[in-house]
Amino acid sequence: MIGEVLNTVFITGLIGAAMRMATPIIFATLGEIINERAGVLNLGIEGIMLMGAMTGFLVSINTGLLWIGVCAAALVGMILSLLMAFLAVYLGLSQHVSGLGITLFSTGLAMFIYRIHFGSPLVPPTVEPFTQVEIPLLSKIPIIGPSLFDQYVLTYVALLLIPIISIILYKTHIGLKIRTVGENPLTADTVGVNVYLTRTLSLVAGGALIGIGGSFLTLAHQNMFLIDVIGGRGWVSIAMVIFGNWDPLKGALGAFIFGFLDGLQLRLQGLGIKIPFHIFLMVPYLMTIIALVGVSRKATVPASLLKPYRREEK
Amino acid sequence: MDERGEEMTGFRIVKRKPLPGWARLVIPVIAIIFTLMLSAIPILVAGGKLWKSYYFLFYGALGTRYNFLETFVKASPLIFTGLGVAFAFRAKFWNIGAEGQLLAGALTATWIGIAFTGIPKILLLPVIITCGFLAGGVWASIPATLKTKLKVDDVVSTLLLNYVMIHIMGSLLFGPLQQPGSTWPRSSEIVEAAKYPMLLARSRFHLGIPLAFFAVAVIWFINEKIVFGYQSKAVGVNIKAAHFGGINTTSVILRTAIISGGLAGLAGVGELCAIQYRLIMDISPGYGYSGIVIAMLGNLHPLGVLFSSLFFSVIIVGAQTMSRMTGVPYYIAEVIQGLALMVMLVFLLLTEYQIKVIRK
Predict the structure, then answer these.
(1) Does any CB of chain A come closer than 8 Å to the CB of residue B153?
(2) A93 vs B346: CB contact, 8 Å cut-off?
(3) Which of residues 75-94 of B touch A (CB under 8 A)?
(4) What CATH code is carried by the domain that includes residue A45?
(5) A261 lies in which domain range?
(6) pLDDT tens by residue, B276-293
(7) Is residue A134 part of a domain?
(8) Considering the entire predicted model, what is its pTM?
(9) Which residues on A lie below 8 Å from B175 (Cβ)?
(10) CB distance B337–A104 less than 8 Å?
């Protein structure tokens, strides 16, 4: 069995699978990092991903254009994040509860719209999903070539977004604004930064990424929409934000490790070991909790995370 | 420069004088009416006739004796999870894990209900109920300990533990707990002595319903009359002040979590011992998550939880009839739950603050 596990084909396949499984989590983790850096914990993430998955699927199946579906998923993520901004930023309601409200509402809405459109067919409708795109030359490198450079375009986009969002957050004026309203909104306000608007736009931008992350699951990873398509990936992304200490690169690294464990459990199931497959399914979640135990004591939370900003309280 | 934020937002939120007592009772009612008005939009989009839909929503839940009692049957697990979540939230222990704790209770009840044969009901049921409570409590004590000892965020850990528990249950249902000879992930039926007695003929009105009402009274008593209830609230209001005031906050959070998880565990025991009689993967259609909405809708007060659970079970039971009669998808129930939470949040804000429109 050891030989079976350690051969090149297995490892190539495993890294490739890890990249695929990590893609939606990288999108959602990056989106949530932007949200939280601006001081808003967005627990709507799980529901926004589900709405993204459903909308992306619905629009793609009707237009026949997968990229329009991805754009629609981003748009729906932005709209739901606007709702989150209204509750948590403008009205200053509890971020925990507002976010959970968004998730519950979106979950119901996603199922509701799906049923209106498709009824309850015995065989769920499918879409012709994205195919993997080989990058010439690079994909010929042994082991890492076929696993890293024969992927979905959305996976490449996710990888490119990691440095882009790092640069925006740390090197640009916009990033400075976002971090300041998350660390010290009063200071931001006194120097003329509109705290409400900055937080809202950060939520909307993050929401777009979260929505796209959801759509990857119905347009690339699978080709249909099922109730449990997200399966806690939104919550895992929240954990990855903490694991990565609110840093895009470290957060994405966490997402990759989760993807790796997810890919590994799928492959171990395939080896036909006589253990209920649910034990394998448990591992990524369990490891995420253990990882949190390791990092939580030295986590540097954005100072004003969870704190609504009200002007007259200064 | 200083006024820019307000010109853009157009309104500001100002604290208001405390509202009189009657307003606090009227506001949830207005919130519910407003929610039902908003629900007209998805109903119309789904092609349902408005009055017919609302008629069947309420007729389906309250119109016949059986359905009326069925509303209480559905309310029982919601009261337990709602109470549990409310009790935890009151101490700012963000227990989003009621779903997992419910499953822990159901799992324990299944095991006892199958393994212990030949014990009379009068002895077996108290054992099952106690162990189901403890199982939920122990499962909730994990995130509480992670929070107090290792500063692990409770929202994330309770949520992730839900998935761990689902897969523990899956492993057991495909493993040692699987019904012999079955290929489905389901357990054998529990013994007769482990089943909750039915209290009213020709219905499923079972022991778990008065038990849920009793739990409401107990939690009210803890909240209002016992030092621990006061300490738990003090931790929620200001954990640092509670600590300096001499309260052992670690112990209070742990005990709060155990009670919270235990209540959710009882929801699982009820579903298993009164409704399903055997463990299946979808033993809970998300009662743990609904419990969060119910806790908020009830303003974390035990009586509020009771009423919002009853409201929600009207929606859940009624939506089935409405769906059958009008073709509006059953998931309208979940949409209404989500809407209810958000509307209630806004209305609760209005009890403490007022919104002043800024004219330019």
Answers:
(1) yes
(2) yes
(3) 94
(4) 1.10.3470
(5) 8-123+139-301
(6) 999 999 999 999 999 998
(7) no
(8) 0.91
(9) 276
(10) yes
